[in-house]
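Re-run with default settings, no changes from the original entry. Doing this only to confirm the output is reproducible before filing.
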Amino acid sequence: MAGANDRPISVIAAEAGADPKSGRIWYDLAGTTMTRYGLPIFALATALADVAALPAAQRYTAKLDGDVVALADATAKMNIAVVTSMGKAWKIQVNGQNLVRTSESLESFEANSGLNGMPLLAPFANRLDQTAFYANGKKYNFDLELGNVRGPIPGTGFVNGSKAWQLVEFKADGKSAWVTCRLDFYRIPEFMKQFPFAHTITLTYRVSEGALEVHTRLDNLSGEPMPAVIGFHPIYELPDGNRDDWTVSVDARTHWIEIPQRLPTGETQPIENFFSVDKSRTAIKLKNYALIDDVFSDLIRDDNGRATMRLMFNGKELDETLGPKFRTVLLWSTPRTAGTAGRGGRGAGGRAGNQAAVAPAPSGPFPVDPAQGVKVAPPAVPPAEGAAPATSKGFIAFEPMAGITNALNLAQKGVYKELQMIPAGGHWEESFWVSTKGY
């Protein structure tokens, strides 16, 4: 054997695929060193080199199929589907489980996405107390004849569902996969008529290390400072249990007291006062409360300036983490009902109520009487005798917002002090992240 190779027999054996302890190697009649399976060692070495040269399985991918970009983190089993013409995530899944409420099909989502997926609330989030808003000390009245803003309490902006978005790019590398879409707000007359600040909105969805980052950039192209009062409206649910089982943790100190029409009075209180049954911000049991549709601020942040809202049950967690420029969060959750009604819109002054057909008539400030402020979360109401049992799963929306509800008009009154303004020619950008544990 030594004549065949001057190296130790154990090395030759290991290279040939033989047992290094016995050193058993096969030879052909010509004396060529062979593996135990009759493969020449030089051929085996070449094959192994070819295998080594193959790229490792790619963790992150970004693929375009028609109008949809699919992002994937193979290790975390996270999959995101973004409809690029809408700039809107359709599906957000981990291990095949939906994290947000979605439509039954892509076709139905494209036809009427509503509050499914990842709705953007722009150019203003949630409600205003009149069919007008203030910016830079000026009053801007909405044109109700256009139909994209309705009174008496406008809500949720009017960008959600627009199909005027453009695909900027989609890519993947060794660290993440992402897709970027842009809306040229300034090119759409019915948008500019209602909010006359020329700007663009750029959204980037990025998956990395098991988390979805939703990054927003507003570029102010106008000649005046532009208020940044956008928000998002993701509706979350856990795969296990239902609303009556789930617990919520909220990194916020302050609750803004609202009248039943969900407009802040300007008064605030500690969050523990509002969740009076639990008296805790980290262990809020949703079953203890009826409607929750309230704004919280003074967010409790980590060393990176981020605050986390968490939904928990049975070892599973869903976290939404807000960057520093998202100054507030709105929590929305309704009690479970028979059928699927619990997944619908809100009542008076809310999402569904705002879409009701009303005569287009301008309205002045809605009367906000502090005496009508709801200071304690309404307690859960036992079902009436003989009522059908609740069958809906329930949900909780953690709505990241740049400012509180009615921030524009409360800032004009001097009530709200944290309104963010984008200088002429400047930009505003921020992210929030969605991640899970135990999925």
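The radius of gyration is 28 Å. The longest strand covers residues 427-437.
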